[in-house]
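Structure, all two chains, one model.
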Amino acid sequence: MLIKPVAEDFRVIAHSMGRIFVVVGLAGLVPLGWAAAGREWHPFSSFLLMIGIFLFLGVLGLRQPGSDRLDWSHGMVVVALTWLLVPIIGALPFVLSGHWGGEIDALFDAVSGLTTTGLALVQDLDHLAPSLNFWRHLLHFLGGQGIIIAALIVFAGGGALTLYLGEARDERILPSVTSTARFIWSVSMVHLVLGVTTLGLVAWRVLGFDLPRAFFHGLMIFFAGFDTGGFAPQSTSVGYYHSAIFEATAGVLMVAGAMSFGLHYALWTGRRRAVLENLETRTILSTFGLTMTMTLIGLAVTGLYTHVIGLTRQGFFQVLSAHTGTGFATVSATELSTWGGLAFGGLCIAMALGGMASSTAGGVKALRIGITVRAIVNQIREVLLPEGAVVGTGFNQAGRRRLTPQLAQAAMTISLLYVALFLVGAGIGMAYGIPLDQALFESVSAGANVGLSVGVTQPTMPVLLKLVYIAEMTLGRLEFVAAFAFLGFLYAAVRGK
Amino acid sequence: MKARAGSRRPRHLLSDAAGGLISFIIEAALVVVLGLVALLIATILVLLV
């Protein structure tokens, strides 16, 4: 029997929501300052409105009784509501700018930004006000790092673990959630300094940009690369720069973003052997090698790129972008749609597999693939070996762990849910007359939070398909659990006793 | 106690920065290695196809 939530439950949820709204509202001060510095008064007023709403709701929530009574179901509802409401309010500056076709298009880009997907419906991006462009990319940073994690740092308090786990993070690197959250932000800050400096210097010295513009582009590409987002300040994505060095630097940030924060911790503390022995590292290197080889064979057979350097550069960068879940592209959507056969398959699989668990990347995740493969191998061994023979069930993932049936079942269930999500999105796309390959590609790109496009995502696409992709992006980012818990809470509120 | 805590903070920041720098260099090296593997595969493919 489902227990109907009472007023006390709503107050506890409202208090936690208040903490998060205040933090996002404070984050909005950065683009507000940017708009003021650039004398962009129209975006300035829209940011002011957005911040006002966030802070008003935040203070309203904080006035409710404390969060020390926050239990697991409250935490999941808070996470789901956060990912539902923050993009709605965060899309306000987009709606008011006139660069988006309407409220749905603006919401699509806000969700795409927060979930670090990178699919975009913005129009005339090349003439968008810098402060709005900055806000698009800051959404990547907030969403990739985790809005909840940001809130945990500012307001350490009750229910921290539930909120942390609800946001699709399943690895506590340090003993407390707050210290883990702080470490995650430390990693990001160090990469921000190194990434922006390197990208800025390349743009300034190699590409010939003037200094402020070079560092603006460096900062935007850092946000989108490290948080495996995929937005870019120009409509032609990373292809705009026509620079192998710039692409390689962006590639380093994409790799860093797709690495779990647990591995970052191992690298920071000098435990490099642990990194190499890690199940996830081995899985992702194997799947990356496989999908890259598939893509390169496909491209070589179709003869799209006949020169070795062109073939390597386009194939490697696109697969790296797909597998890390970033979505940067050095080829246009039209050109990408001509990558048929094995190249298309390799790219699609790379997108679906995604990065590592507890990273900023999306997709099924290397940990689940590794666990599933290990479980299947163990099953085969049990059949082939003599009765009574002991099959090893250990694997390395932040220390030695045992592969229990429950762990394997959980990994396979979430993996199957991802496959179902991709197929449902592809099916709805096909219902609108989009060819199977393109509908599948775009659906996988949305559900795995990648952002590569073969041209299906555009302002003129059907509204229902926009809403389906919005749902896919959110479900993919939250890895289903928080969303399902929220639906259960709603059901209990209506039908519970 | 206050003095000790104050003196530990800069060392902590320095070790964070050093750890991050080493991590960044390793990530860069990984991209270079993967790129070279891609170049090798592409070279073989162009010769074969």
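Chain A has a mean pLDDT of 91.
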